[in-house]
Amino acid sequence: MSGKLNLDKLDYQIIQHMMEDAEISYADLGKKLFVSGGTIHVRIKKLQELGVVKGNRLAVDIKLIGYDVTAFVGIYLEKSSLYDSVVEDLKKIPQIVRLNYTTGNYSMFVELCCKDIAELKKVLHDELQSIKGIERTETLISLDESFNRNVQVIDLND
C-alpha cells in the first residue's frame, strides 16, 4: 500500500517520531530531521489527507480512572453475511474499544473495557448476546497488559 501512496523516507521518519512523541513541536521535529518546521507541517497535512495520519488521541491509563477489567471476546456469527449489520450494532456499545474481522475460530474479535465484572456481565449478557446474527461468544479476561506499542515503521538509526 505504501507504494501507492508514494511516501518517502522523510514521511516515514515523521510518522515514526510522531508515534513515539505526538507532542513534539513541528519546529523541534524539523530540527531532528534537518528540515524546517514548515516542511513538517506540510508533510503532516499531506499524511492526514492521505488517511495515513488519523486524528490524535490522548493516551490514558484507564485503570487509574476506574476501568479495572479488559476483556477480549471472540464472536461466532450465524452467517458471515451478517458481518456488516453486526458491526453496526457493536459500534453502539461504548465499552468496545477495538473490533477486528478475523480468520480462525472466530468471525470477529473485540476488545472491551469495563469498570468492573458486573459491567462486563451486563455488556456480555444484555448487549452482545442480544445482537441478531451473533451465534455465541467466548470471553477472555486480561489479567495484565505487559506492553502496548505502535509498530516501528522505519529504523531511525538508518
From TrEMBL:
Keywords: DNA-binding, Transcription, Transcription regulation. It comes from the Bacteria. The keyword Transcription regulation applies. SUPFAM superfamilies: Dimeric alpha+beta barrel, Winged helix' DNA-binding domain. Residues 7-68 form the HTH asnC-type domain. This is Lrp/AsnC ligand binding domain-containing protein.
